[in-house]
Amino acid sequence: MMKRKATLVIILVGLGLLVLCFKYIYGWMSFHRNVDTSVGFLNNTVVSGENYIQDSTQIIHQLKKSLLRHEDFFNSSAYDDSTQIIIDSIVYSPDLKKVGILVIAKNATSKQLLPDKRYNWYYDATCYLGVRQADSITLKMTGATYTNSYSEQRISDIMRAACFRTFAIDDSLHKYNLNDTRFWSAPIWKKYFDQ
């Protein structure tokens, strides 16, 4: 009877250690940990609707040029003049000179190698950074890409989580999330814009 209890305790402790090991060391949580921005550093910059529309239009126009040249995010031949570019969000620096842009591309599923006939559209997404120079915004792709979602809302949620909750990692380039006021002076700007 005592041997059974001892064996049971050892098995339970072993299973507990195994779960902790996989949960924190081998990836159940370690690869997608949230680093939420502290309330004191949340970026609350707001622009007028007119400026937002003007910037969105200008950004879409620039991205459309990249799309037609198959550059950056739009390097696949699936992107063509029928691809719809959607600006999901624009995040502004407090001085309005820098922006972070969440971009979604909408394509017909017929362009996929193995299209799912249940859906008409699929969505891809990424993040761009931009610097305002006079009347133009210079753009650079910086984020990871997310592909082949059949839901615009789902890919938007994934991108927002990636940029606002898990963008900050422990390297010198991505120290802060996109919604953090400290992000606008982070080393990432030197890499992409020499600023």
Automatic annotation (TrEMBL):
The protein, known as: TPM domain-containing protein
Lineage, opening ranks: Bacteria, Pseudomonadati, Bacteroidota, Chitinophagia, Chitinophagales
